[in-house]
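hey so i finally got around to running the thing on that chain from the lab meeting. sorry it took forever, my laptop kept dying and i had to restart like 3 times. anyway pasting the input first so we r on the same page abt which one it is
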Amino acid sequence: MIVDWTTLLAFAPAALALNLTPGADMLFCLGQGLRGGPQAAMAANLGIGAGCVFHLLAAGLGLSALLVAAPWLFDAIRWAGVAYLVWLAIGALRSPLGGRETAPIRTSRAFRDAVTVNVLNPKVALFVLAFLPQFVDPARGPVLLQFLTLGAVLIAGGLVVNGVVGVFAGGIGRALARSVRLERALRIASAGIFMTLAARLALDARR
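ok and heres what got predicted. didnt touch it at all, straight out
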């Protein structure tokens, strides 16, 4: 086995604790659930998982180390992520009202937005570089496979936790969206979540 059981037993609780800590991924699923319902929330959840796979591959291949060596690259990706989140917030506010049934959010769009937001968050790449190597043993085999194995555990926990949050928010959003006034409030709330994430990414300097 590429990662021994003792390492997995130590890694799994730490990964679960991180998954349970409210963060950008959980807030994004919450926002998509409020705005688009349970299906949009789950699509966003899967998109975040796909974005994490990208970061795992980049870290395992040594590409994420460029963010440490080149601060300008980190800032360029960070501000691209900020701009995309602001664009999502504006889109949430400008969407036509009239009920979830008449203007649903396509799951493909929710998935794409989640992948883009996750990939354009360099803090995720730095987190992977800082956290996973503690559990990697080069003597046991290819480092990339170990990154992917450990990452699969981390992603699986995130899919469960963020999925529950997103689907719960989606159920509430779908019920409330029967009223145009309440739907407007939900869209403002989801836009506020996206803007909060944008501000957090903009103000969160590299650590």
